Amino acid sequence: MSRRLEDLSGPEIGERITETAVFIQPIGAVEQHGPHLPLSVDHVIAHETANALVDAYGESSDLWLLPTMSVSKSNEHAWSPGTLWYSATTMLAVLDDIGRSVATTAANRLVFLNGHGGNSSLLNVACREIRLSHGLKTFLVHPFVPADQGGVSPETELGMGVHGGHHETSVFMHLRPDLVHIEKASRAVPDRLADNKHVKFGGLTSFGWLSNDFFDHGYIGDPTAATAAEGKRLFEASVELLGEQMAEIARFDFGHR
Ligand SMILES: [Zn+2]
Question: How is the chain split into domains, by residue range?
């Protein structure tokens, strides 16, 4: 039976969505990813990961899928024509509306499954705002922790596979091989940042950046050795790790006394 919210009828919401339900809101982006990838990368990865997650762990953790939010806060790519983005205030307002809507059901858990690293800070803010405004328990997970937020990135990228790099390109090659043009990619790593002790991706000092601050083409990483086989491995490992996280989210309690 479907675990996609939009497949249920109005009366079924009252019957099937109970207090153990965990709603998952996949969040993508429609933004430039360099010449080798389409704008849809983050949307596709968030959407496919969330669907695989609910297919595999929906019954065991009582997961319910919300429609994928395709457009999000991508203003680091505002310079690139065709990138669609919400401002921070719009995005926060949209998330608050989603929270309000979810809170009309019997469910009390909402998970943001975020495919676009540029959303992370705002989503953490939204988690607290929605907790306060609508009383939901709120959570933020990522298919892949972005390299600029402490995620891993291969040696050749010096830890800077931030956007359109090795991992992201590999996963996308697995999901949509026909949309990848790897022959148009080259290594694009801002090597000089690696010399900094603190001011670097994942360093103690963070910094505001736009995706064309490093290179005109706007991708950051080394996608040249990406493969679909590695993408498949990464994707499956990600779904499994998220499955573990969902099990813990499903039984999460603040332990308030
Ligand atoms: Zn991306």
Answer: 5-250
Q: Ligand 1 is a single-atom ion; what residues have CB below 5 A from it?
A: 41-42
Give the integer Cα–Cα distance in Å for 106 and 185: 48
**What is the mean pLDDT of the segment spanning 217-227?**
95
Distance 171 CA to ligand 1 centre (A): 11
- Looking at domain 5-250, which of 3.40.47.10, 3.40.50.10310, 2.70.20.10, 3.40.50.920 is its CATH number? 3.40.50.10310
Rounded distance between C-alpha atoms, residue 146 and residue 167, angstroms:
10
Question: Rounded CA gap, 156 and 167, in Å?
Answer: 12
Q: What is the pTM of this model?
A: 0.97
Q: Model confidence over 73-130: pLDDT tens digits? A: 999 999 999 999 999 999 999 999 999 999 999 999 999 999 999 999 999 999 999 9
Closest CA to 144 of 58, 41, 43, 45: 45
Angle (deg, nearest 10), helices 120-134 and 88-102: 40
Q: What's the CA-to-centroid distance between 146 and ligand 1, angstroms?
A: 9
